[in-house]
Design a protein that fits this description.
single chain, 202 residues, mainly alpha, 0% strand
Length: 202
């Protein structure tokens, strides 16, 4: 449990995306992105159990292609965040209105969450390498991993929602033009750093 929580709470692209969405005034969109991330994690766990993780381990070219695709997604988000950091927000955009909570934004955020987690092949490989060691002796391995994956993803969703609430509470202190540009710049740095690490296989 403790090791799982430490892994889940480690900062990464998921938290950066949630932070960016919350500070943009779209709590519902941030929640939708979190659900998309967990859905992608569940899909990766299922595919890993079905043998995709083993296939990626034996096919370096395929794994590299997945890594570069994920890195490109992160680079695109880094560029968007950097553009926001370099462009001062308009005065009327400082306080998000109800339009930010509309359905299309929520659907787009869900897709962003799917891409953020789903485009990183290391998620499935990690789950298949990390979880089996906690299956109790004598238990069915497939069923044990499935239960552990469900628990892991539930904890992951809980942490994302807690983080979303924390950021929302701090948002009122971060809506000045300078703070907004700083947080966009920091988000761009996080996305860019993880894009490089993913592309280089680190």
């Amino acid at each position: 449990m403790t090791s799982s929580l430490l892994v889940i709470m480690t900062p990464g692209p998921d938290l950066a995306l949630i932070t960016r969405l919350v500070l943009g005034g779209t709590r519902r969109a941030a929640a939708a992105a979190a659900i998309g991330m967990i859905a992608a994690g569940a899909a990766q766990a299922a595919l890993g159990a079905a043998g995709l993780a083993a296939l990626l381990n034996t096919r370096p070219q395929l794994f590299t292609a997945f890594r570069w695709a994920g890195a490109l997604v992160l680079v695109a988000w880094a560029v968007l965040a950097l553009r926001s950091a370099l462009r001062p927000p308009a005065p009327e955009a400082a306080a998000p209105g109800p339009a930010a909570e509309r359905g299309p934004g929520v659907r787009l955020a869900f897709v962003q969450g799917l891409l953020c987690t789903g485009s990183n092949p290391k998620v499935g490989l990690f789950l298949m390498a990390f979880l089996p060691q906690f299956v109790p002796a004598g238990a069915d391995p497939a069923a044990g991993v499935a239960v552990l994956a469900a628990c892991y993803l539930a904890m992951g969703l809980g942490w994302l929602l807690v983080w979303m609430r924390l950021v929302h509470r701090l948002a009122r202190f971060l809506h000045s033009p300078r703070a907004t540009r700083f947080t966009h710049g920091l988000t761009a740095a996080v996305f860019g750093t993880f894009a490089v690490r993913l592309a280089l296989g680190g």
